[in-house]
Amino acid sequence: MGARAAPSRRRQAGRRLRYLPTGSFPFLLLLLLLCIQLGGGQKKKENLLAEKVEQLMEWSSRRSIFRMNGDKFRKFVKAPPRNYSMIVMFTALQPQRQCSVCRQANEEYQILANSWRYSSAFCNKLFFGMVDYDEGTDVFQQLNMNSAPTFMHFPSKGRPKRADTFDLQRIGFAAEQLAKWIADRTDVHIRVFRPPNYSGTIALALLVSLVGGLLYLRRNNLEFIYNKTGWAMVSLSYIHGSSQAQFVAESHIILVLNAAITMGMVLLNEAATSKGDVGKRRIICLVGLGLVVFFFSFLLSIFRSKYHGYPYSDLDIE
User: Fold this and answer.
1) How many CB atoms lie within 10 A of CB 280?
2) Helix ranges restricted to H, 63-198
3) pLDDT value of position 20
4) What are the respective helix, strand and coil percentages of the chain, to the nearest 5?
5) How far apart are CA 22 and CA 195, in angstroms?
6) CA-angle at 303, arms to 297 and 309, nearest 5°
7) For 215-248, what is each residue's pLDDT tens digit?
8) pTM metric for this prediction
């Protein structure tokens, strides 16, 4: 029985092959070629992506921000495949453009890009680029962009959305604000490292050296320090000692002191509301605070000298 069943199964298989439609063989061949082509296309995309990432990493190793013209922008930013995010600054840095804001924004952008390049979290998922108007006019026209500077985020997938354009007018262009915006768009957190500013320390050291050198040269003739007549001329009083009278010069002194206090308050408000460099804002804040503290203390001292018995001194106000 087993020997008879085997030929029967072979005859049934042959019968099924005989009744297979003749048009199905070209279809199977086409399907096979399509699969091969899709596999080759996928491999080609992977090779192209690897070449782009390798080129971007090479540029980033030499410079934290690489400049792009129209061809490079279309190849590395607009054209697929792309598995990385791009932050691009559109600017106009040529001297004939006279864009001072562009230069200030570029300094903050450099600080941010350098902080990312030298951080331990640096990887090939985020790159920084720049398109200057004089080097990529066609890119500005393609994006219908008529103002600079502008910061845009080009995600790894899909097209940029409205939030991918940095709101420079409302937030400012400080590196810390740019880092926060990048973290919201890419989940990449960048800790900003600013280069140390030694200008204040150098200026103070020069002043101390100048005074010290002058005293050293006059070390054998320092009687002017003990000259009572000279100090009396310096400390000549223009403030009347009574609350019932006032010199003409006293009114001008009080006016100048109040103007200095007002200027200090204006500087404090400017430091709190401006969108410029954080370092400059910190200096403005310190200068404003110094003006308010020093001149208000001086004004209070004048008040005490006229109203004898006033219990408070300097800024000791309750």
Assistant:
1) 14
2) 70-73, 100-117, 137-142, 168-171, 175-186
3) 46
4) 60, 5, 30
5) 77
6) 110
7) 777 667 666 666 656 555 544 466 666 666 666 6
8) 0.56
